């Protein structure tokens, strides 16, 4: 049975994800703790079509520290609708799908927390599974932490830059822009060549052992 490098495994995983008709998701939130809630949510499909993109009114104020990152203010969400209004739509879009985000543990936790805070009438969707682009890209890029034994995580903007991806005109650190960047980083990995595919393109003369 052939063996693969960790980079090759990341490429194969990205290819598998893109074959599963995934949806890509991103959130912007009021913070990082167990009380934080979503204030911006976007979902796109594998082709980049926007399925959902909206500000969401949380049940708590957005702290200045969070606004300084994503530039979403309390004034901006004052006229937005609460998550409970969108909940059935979100459930329908995610149900039975592979959900891919740049930090799956965080984004899915915030979905649960926000649903609970908004007293959504039904449990969260039974999604097929979740994929984390941040962890997969760390394996693909292959940079070890200073202590070794683990791959260094990269911020989404840095990962996109390393892949040669233009962030486009959408403002970064907003849900839709970050969702599209996650999709493009995943596609970049899926389109990369495996080690065997790279070797197959080397002229046969270059593969000869030197005398």
What fraction strand? 5-15%
Low-confidence stretches: 204-211
- What is the helix content? 40-55%
Helix-strand pattern: HEEEHHHEHEHHHH
How far apart the termini lie comes to 31 Å
**From the alpha-carbon coordinates, what is the Rg to the nearest angstrom?**
20 Å
Strand arrangement, largest sheet? 3-2-1-4-5
Shape: globular
Report the count of strand segments. Answer: 5
**Main beta sheet:** 5 strands, mixed
Please give the count of helices. 9
Give me the secondary-structure category: alpha/beta
- How confident overall, as mean pLDDT? 87
Can you give me a brief rundown of this structure?
The chain is an alpha/beta fold and 211 residues long. The chain contains nine helices and five strands; from the N terminus they run H-E-E-E-H-H-H-E-H-E-H-H-H-H. The protein has a five-stranded mixed sheet with strand order 3-2-1-4-5, with helices on both faces.
């Amino acid at each position: 049975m052939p063996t693969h490098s960790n980079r090759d495994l990341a490429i194969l995983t990205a290819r598998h994800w893109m074959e599963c008709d995934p949806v890509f998701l991103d959130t912007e939130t009021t913070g990082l703790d167990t009380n934080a809630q979503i204030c911006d949510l976007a979902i796109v499909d594998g082709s980049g079509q926007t399925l959902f993109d909206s500000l969401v009114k949380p049940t708590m104020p957005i702290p200045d520290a969070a606004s300084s990152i994503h530039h979403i203010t309390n004034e901006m969400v004052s006229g937005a609708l609460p998550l409970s209004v969108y909940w059935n739509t979100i459930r329908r879009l995610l149900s039975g799908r592979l959900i891919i985000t740049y930090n799956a543990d965080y984004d899915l936790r915030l979905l649960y927390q926000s649903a609970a805070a908004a007293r959504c009438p039904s449990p969260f969707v039974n999604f097929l599974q979740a994929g984390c682009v941040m962890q997969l890209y760390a394996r693909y890029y292959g940079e070890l932490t200073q202590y070794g034994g683990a791959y260094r995580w990269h911020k989404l903007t840095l990962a996109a830059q390393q892949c040669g991806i233009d962030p486009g005109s959408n403002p970064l650190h907003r849900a839709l822009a970050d969702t599209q960047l996650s999709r493009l980083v995943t596609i970049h990995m899926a389109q990369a060549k495996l080690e065997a595919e790279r070797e197959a393109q080397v002229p046969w003369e270059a593969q000869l052992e030197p005398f």
